[in-house]
Write a sequence for this structure.
């Protein structure tokens, strides 16, 4: 291959000495390592992906060379550019993406909804471009770790075109995919050893899984073995859609619909990317706002909800990373950090001088911060011996001890404490080292800090203690350690700014053993936060059956109402937790208690289509004819939501099909016709609903069915005695309404009869 000079846009074969000496490893996987390198000639940062030598022996690298020539010609905003090869390092030289992979970002930051939608759209743009090639360029390796992010968090697809199908290679193809850790992204048809080569639908399925990861910020099939994943996917099971946060924009339902189509079991039903691009663009435009991400130390506190603090149980903190200083001056301050980043600790200790110790780097970081982050305790001790200030802070208030405990460097944490590190000193948000280790579940360091004087009752700026964090994250051993250092009063009275106790948090996240511990220490099961929610409200809403049982056994009130008038039974009914509803009713919960809007648990179960809950409530005396806001009954709500199974259960329980709501005099049949719910209409007619009932505007169900153009409903009404001559308050018959709405099929039906 000829070597070319010129711009980064030209394909060339680089030599190792084309790059500066500092190669910084930024990623590593089973088959390759990725380095950040800097070209001497262009002063341009690049990514160099070096492949394992064993792969090169079986012509893998030869295929990459052949493919890279073609891929390098592709230029598009949402796919990563390839500059050339470095044969000496068996590597591909690519565009450098400063914000790494989407996989890492999803784990370390909370993405706001507009940014999630934007990323989904941009990924679909990149994949649509690849599939628009003639023939389509298949990725076959699409996953969040192969979606990279530039300076402004825009998406670029990488690693496409590296996996190929060859005739008769079904088994080998599957082995290649699973060896790369792709099991969660492989469509079910691939498991069947189908002799057909993969097509574009393979990538579409993988994209569906990527969408789920972006929307939930979770990993698919977490903790499942490969065999379990194969079985679940083969049976049509997919990652749980309910893991998408409840407090989502309405447009999210449409995005979920796209996702469900992408991972359809039948590959023929999966959409083309050309269609997905249009649909995701529309959704992305609706939600477009500034400010893409926020750091997720205290969770997603900015998004409003009934319980805004119910956030991911993992609070993340971005750690200070080793900066890259490509300097030839190994004895200067840049060179000192470079030695640390290369983990050349012996040279570092020989080169470091007192003046380096007192140098302040970007973000007010000191050499001690960077040395601690390197993980080498000998180097830390050496820097301390040169007079480093053990309690120095960065611009955000991080001490070296905070850095050490975040990295779980136990020896370094001990060393710093021996040299006078303050166990009680917090960052700018007053998060102490104990807060961080309690959150992370590092019980070894918790013991160390408590023995060195850490304050178990210290509060960060919003009032959270270490016990709050340990309870939220389910770290039972840490909870036990903290409880051993707290008085009973402290356990009972610990509340953060919103009035939430450790018991609230343990209950909300379903940590049964921790809830038992707290109750055993005298925690009040009826303590309420500022929204008047108790621990029982939260565990009932989240579906934690065993925690609910523990709370009611310990005296939690089943009929306490929160600030909206919701009891725990209301919340369990709303979410469809039948077993919890049964428990609460058996412990005396009132089935007919009302919210401030007048809704009973029966209303909420009907609204959400939870037929088993409806049956459970009715069996315990819940009224099926109770009227809520504006006189709406559960039957009205079930008809409005097109929930025919619930309609049937309510009617079987003697719900009145002819009751009217207060404002417009609508019967459930009026509502069902407007909602175009044909099965609900049939259920109502079977139970003697009046097909000629008049609302306040004298409209009959037939008027409404004509307006909404549902032929089967119109036929059903006519067959059961609907009077087509009745006129509404405007003097219109049903056929007049159909003519005015240009529903000509309905007009013909009404004029000729059925």
């Amino acid at each position: 291959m000829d070597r070319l000079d010129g711009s980064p846009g030209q394909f060339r074969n680089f030599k190792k000495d084309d790059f500066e000496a500092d190669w910084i490893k930024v990623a590593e996987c089973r088959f390759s390592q990725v380095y950040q390198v800097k070209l001497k000639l262009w002063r341009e940062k690049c990514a160099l992906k070096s492949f394992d030598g064993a792969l090169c022996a079986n012509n893998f690298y030869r295929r990459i060379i052949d493919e890279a020539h073609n891929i390098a010609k592709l230029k598009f905003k949402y796919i990563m550019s390839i500059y050339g090869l470095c044969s000496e390092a068996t590597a591909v030289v690519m565009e450098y993406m400063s914000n790494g992979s989407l996989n890492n970002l999803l784990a370390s930051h909370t993405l706001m909804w507009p940014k999630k939608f934007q990323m989904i759209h941009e990924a679909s743009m990149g994949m649509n471009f690849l599939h628009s090639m003639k023939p389509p360029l298949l990725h076959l390796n699409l996953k969040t770790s192969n979606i990279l992010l530039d300076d402004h968090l825009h998406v670029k697809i990488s690693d496409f075109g590296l996996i190929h199908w060859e005739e008769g290679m079904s088994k080998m193809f599957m082995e290649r995919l699973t060896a790369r850790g792709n099991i969660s992204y492989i469509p079910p048809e691939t498991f069947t050893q189908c002799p057909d080569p993969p097509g574009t639908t393979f990538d579409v399925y993988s994209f569906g899984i990527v969408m789920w990861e972006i929307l939930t910020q979770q990993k698919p099939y977490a903790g499942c073995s490969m065999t379990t994943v194969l079985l679940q996917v083969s049976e049509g099971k997919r990652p749980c859609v309910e893991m998408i946060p409840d407090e989502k924009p309405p447009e999210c339902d449409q995005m979920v619909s796209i996702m469900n189509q992408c991972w359809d079991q039948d590959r023929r039903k999966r959409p083309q990317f050309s269609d997905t691009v249009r649909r995701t663009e529309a959704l992305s435009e609706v939600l477009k706002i500034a400010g893409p991400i926020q750091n997720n130390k205290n969770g997603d506190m900015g998004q409003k909800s009934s319980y805004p603090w119910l956030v991911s149980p993992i609070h993340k903190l971005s750690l200070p990373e080793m900066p890259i200083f490509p300097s030839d001056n190994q004895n200067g301050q840049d060179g000192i950090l470079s030695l640390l980043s290369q983990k050349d600790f012996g040279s570092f200790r020989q080169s470091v001088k007192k003046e380096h110790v007192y140098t302040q780097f970007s973000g007010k970081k000191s050499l001690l911060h960077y040395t601690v982050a390197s993980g080498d305790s000998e180097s830390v001790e050496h820097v301390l011996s040169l007079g480093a200030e053990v309690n120095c802070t960065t611009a955000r208030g991080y001490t070296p001890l905070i850095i050490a405990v975040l990295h779980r460097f136990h020896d370094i944490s001990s060393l710093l404490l021996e040299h006078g590190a303050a166990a009680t000193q917090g960052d700018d948000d007053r998060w102490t080292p104990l807060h961080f280790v309690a959150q992370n579940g590092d019980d070894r360091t918790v013991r160390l800090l408590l023995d060195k004087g850490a304050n178990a009752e210290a509060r960060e700026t919003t009032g959270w203690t270490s016990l709050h964090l340990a309870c939220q994250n389910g770290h039972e051993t840490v909870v036990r350690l903290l409880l051993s250092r707290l008085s009973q009063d402290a356990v009972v009275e610990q509340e953060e700014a919103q009035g939430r106790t450790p018991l609230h948090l343990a209950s909300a996240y379903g940590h049964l053993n921790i809830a038992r511990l707290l109750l055993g220490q005298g925690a009040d099961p009826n303590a309420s936060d500022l929204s008047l929610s108790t621990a029982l409200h939260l565990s009932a809403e989240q579906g934690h059956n065993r925690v609910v049982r523990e709370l009611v056994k310990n005296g939690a009130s089943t009929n306490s109402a929160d600030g909206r008038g919701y009891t725990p039974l209301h919340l369990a009914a709303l979410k469809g937790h039948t077993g919890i509803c049964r428990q609460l009713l058996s412990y005396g919960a009132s089935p007919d208690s009302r919210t401030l809007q007048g809704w009973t648990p029966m209303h909420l179960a009907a609204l959400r289509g939870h037929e088993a809950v409806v049956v459970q409530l009715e069996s315990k005396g819940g009224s099926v004819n109770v009227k809520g806001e504006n006189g709406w009954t559960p039957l009205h709500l079930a008809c409005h939501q097109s929930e025919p199974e619930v309609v049937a259960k309510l009617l079987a329980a003697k719900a009145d099909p002819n009751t009217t709501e207060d404002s417009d005099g609508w019967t459930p049949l009026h509502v069902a016709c407007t909602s175009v719910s044909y099965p609900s209409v049939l259920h109502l007619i079977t139970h003697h609903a009046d097909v000629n009932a008049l609302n306040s505007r004298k409209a009959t169900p037939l008027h409404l069915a004509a307006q909404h153009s549902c032929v089967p409903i119109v036929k059903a009404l006519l067959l059961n005695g609907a009077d087509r001559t009745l006129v509404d308050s405007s003097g219109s018959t049903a056929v007049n309404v159909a003519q005015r709405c240009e529903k000509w099929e309905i007009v013909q039906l009404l004029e000729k009869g059925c």
